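Progress note, sequence design subtask.
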């Protein structure tokens, strides 16, 4: 996983086979397919990381954090607070 391109189709958005999503730069485990859910955004959506230190988060606003790989710092996108499949759950 890395920042998604607006010009290409995102390969993993509709991919729901069991497995683990890892950083494209260092293979650090980031998300499990068990935390993936369908969402209207053009990117894959997850409710939680595999481990707390799988990612590093930096606050961008009251409702969004910039998300980086916890091992190598590769940009992964954002965590959107309270935008998950249930009330009170965030979306990565």
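Output:
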């Amino acid at each position: 996983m890395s920042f998604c391109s607006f010009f290409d189709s995102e390969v993993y958005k509709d991919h729901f086979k069991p497995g683990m999503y890892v950083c494209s730069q260092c293979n650090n485990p980031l998300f499990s397919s068990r935390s993936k859910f369908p969402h209207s955004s053009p990117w894959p959506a997850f409710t939680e990381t595999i481990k707390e230190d799988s990612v590093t988060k930096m606050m961008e606003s009251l409702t969004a954090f910039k998300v980086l790989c916890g091992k190598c710092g590769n940009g992964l996108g954002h965590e959107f607070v309270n935008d998950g499949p249930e009330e009170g759950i965030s979306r990565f």
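The mean pLDDT is 86. Work on this subtask will continue into the next period as scheduled.
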